[in-house]
Each structure stands twice: as structure tokens, then as C-alpha cells.
Amino acid sequence: MHDTTALNQAMDHFDGHDNVWLFGYGSIIFKADFPYLARRPAHILDWQRRFWQGSHDHRGTPAAPGRVVTLVEAPGARCAGMAYLITPEEFAHLDHREKNGYLRVVTPIHFAEGGVADGLTYVAAPDNAAWLGPASEADIAAHIARAAGPSGPNRAYLLELAAALRALGEDDAHIFAIEQHLIRLSS
Ligand code: BEZ
Predict the structure, then answer these.
(1) Which of 36, 95, 145, 163 is most buried, taking the most CB atoms under 10 A from its CB?
(2) Is 54 helix (H, G, I), strand (E, B) or coil?
(3) pLDDT per residue as tens digits for the range 106-131
């Protein structure tokens, strides 16, 4: 596996800051397994969420990767999620958790209550070793239906993400279409 931990730890954009906003758009929305100082619904602009990244270590295996979300640049798009205010030490844990191709990217984070702050999010770009890329939403659902890894079934990841977005009152046509295909496959 190509491990991005060292690349992320060389990033110094927020050096000297007591705390940093982290924007979560995937499992971090529903599984914040790190301490945080504050948590706020938020969105970022010019990125869209896509099930285009392979997961070798959480929702699949190297022999049978699962599919998880990443961010893809899309001018004019809006991606909703959850922002967490964390201390810089938490990034060591997050870099390890997201080592399968994700790099930290600096982005303005727009809070649902109003206001904006620069923060970080993790993006797996097309040049990473675990990248799977586009497929139809029906094919993505079929892939997710058969994958599982150390963190559990791939389908639970999708269903929990869709439920978390619904709880935030957010629409995401890509995620909800894959969810509908998956439900149809299992009924
Ligand atoms: C997130 O939930 O923001 C997230 C998704 C994929 C990798 C890292 C973080």
C-alpha cells in the first residue's frame, strides 16, 4: 500500500496554531473517534463528494478493495459535512486512519450558522495507488454490496453516511442514488 502518513506529517500550514478546523465529509461525519473542542455543520465550495476511492484497509482488503468517498474538484459545487475544531496532535491519529491515499488539503470551511474559517480536509486524488475512479451509481452500489474490511461491511459505511447527511438536512444526489440502488439490490 502507498502510505501517505509521512507526506501529511510534512505539512506545516497550521504550524504554531493551538487548534485547527477539520472538515469531514465521509466517515468523520458519523464516526468522530478523536477528541474535539467544537463541532459544527458546515460545507465547502468547489468540491464534490464521490465514491471513487478504493479502500484496502477499512471497508475492503488489498485483494478486494471497497469503495469510499473522496473529494473531486468541481467549480460551483457545494459539499456538506461536519467541521471539528481539534488540536494539532490529533492529526497524527487522523493521518494514520486515512493513510490509504488521502492527503491534507487547505480549504475555506463555511459554517451553517454563518462565518468561514480556513481549515483542513483529506482528499484522495486520482494519482494515488488506491484510486478506482468513476463508475455508474448502479455499479458502485453493486461493488459496495459485496465488499467488507476490518472496519466492517462497505454497505454500512454507505448507509451510515446517507443517514448522517439526511440528519443534517442535506441532499447529495450521488450518495442517495447509490443508496437507492443498494436497497433495491438487497430487497
Ligand atoms: C472524512 O470523513 O472527511 C474523510 C473521508 C475520507 C478520508 C478522510 C476523511
Answers:
(1) 95
(2) strand
(3) 999 999 999 999 999 999 999 999 99
